[in-house]
Design brief:
single chain, alpha/beta, UDP-N-acetylmuramoyl-L-alanine:D-glutamate ligase, 11-stranded mixed β-sheet, 4-stranded mixed β-sheet, 15 strands, 26% strand, carbohydrate metabolism
Length: 321
């Protein structure tokens, strides 16, 4: 077997410290509830995406911004230990590193409060400082959590260089049409799709309508996460992948794993349909594990999982692709 080509991915997105407390139930306003579990870990959708890319065997570079505080330096060290290149992460002397506070009950329901901190100050100048690195990448993965003008600047650089562009916004927000028109594939959950298209995604038909809306407006292809599975729609056709019959433990990192896997597979010069199949399996494996960061799988685990699924014909979808 020929050696696999190593993909080269640049991720643009947010970086934060995540504090997570779990207890039997969530507190009401003004109430104090005793919890039983606490975690402090590397957070931010950009950081999670970059780690997911690295664990899947690709060269991973993160473009983002942290504060010059203890937390920021610790996050950079963690990223580097994961194999993520951090030279394109700006150090902000005036703003603290982003933070997310999350409370989770036994049913998995969560309440979150976040402060963007240095993330909100990522600027076009920071992106231009990483222009050479973006230009050399196979794929630019944009995950937001940072100002849109910085994301648009990175997308324009990647587009001019002929790189693939994967847009995977992890928050329900409107996006400029020029951004949609520049991306090769946009990956959305139901909440994001509703904001961008005005359509509630509840099944295959509504996912198809949302994807058609995005492709009509200029996106090369769209992947929509419906409650029952993932739909890929583009100019070459349609691919529907139903949820795999696995035990779902924690879906916190599944979306980042999906976008990272699409990016890595495209960087390895695989077809978009094959990339989405690979991502579908990767996100399911992630959801079988506890923790947004700790649940992100490495390449060997994913390939073993894919082999089992193919052996059971579980990655043979209804498709016109």
């Amino acid at each position: 077997m020929a050696p696999r080509r190593q993909a080269d991915i640049v991720v643009v997105g947010g970086i934060s410290t995540d504090f997570r407390v779990q207890g039997a139930r969530l507190p009401r306003p003004g109430e104090r509830v005793e919890g039983y579990s606490f975690q402090e870990q590397l957070g931010g959708k950009g950081a999670h995406g970059a780690v997911a890319v690295a664990r899947l065997g690709a060269r991973s570079t993160l473009v983002g911004r942290v504060g010059m505080d203890v937390r920021g330096m610790a996050l950079l060290e963690q990223l580097e230990e994961e194999g993520v290149e951090t030279r394109a992460v700006a150090r902000d002397p005036a703003e603290s590193t982003g933070v997310l506070m999350e409370m989770v009950d036994e049913a998995g329901r969560a309440q979150c409060l976040s402060v963007a901190g240095a993330n909100r100050r990522l600027c076009v100048r920071d992106v231009l400082a990483a222009e050479e690195r973006i230009t050399r990448a196979d794929v630019l993965l944009a995950q937001l959590g940072v100002p849109l003008d910085a994301v648009v600047a990175a997308v324009h650089i990647a587009r001019a260089a002929g790189s693939h562009i994967v847009l995977a916004p992890r928050s329900a927000t409107s996006l400029p049409e020029e951004l949609l028109e520049a991306v090769h594939v946009v990956c959305l959950g139901g909440a994001e799709a509703a904001v961008l298209t005005g359509l509630d995604v509840g099944d295959l038909d509504s996912a198809r309508q949302a994807a058609e809306n995005l492709v009509r407006r200029g996106a090369g292809a769209a992947v929509i996460a419906a409650p029952q599975g993932h739909l890929l729609l583009g100019k070459e056709g349609e691919l529907w992948l139903q949820n795999l019959p696995v035990d779902w433990v924690d879906t916190a990192g599944a979306r980042e794993a999906f976008a990272a896997a699409v990016s890595v597979a495209l960087g390895e010069k695989r077809s978009l349909a094959d990339a989405v199949r690979f991502a579908h399996a990767t996100s399911a494996l992630t959801a079988m594990r506890l923790g947004a960061m700790s649940g992100l799988p490495d390449r060997d685990d994913v390939e073993a999982f894919v082999a089992r699924l193919e052996g059971q014909a579980l990655l043979s979808p209804h498709a016109s692709w």
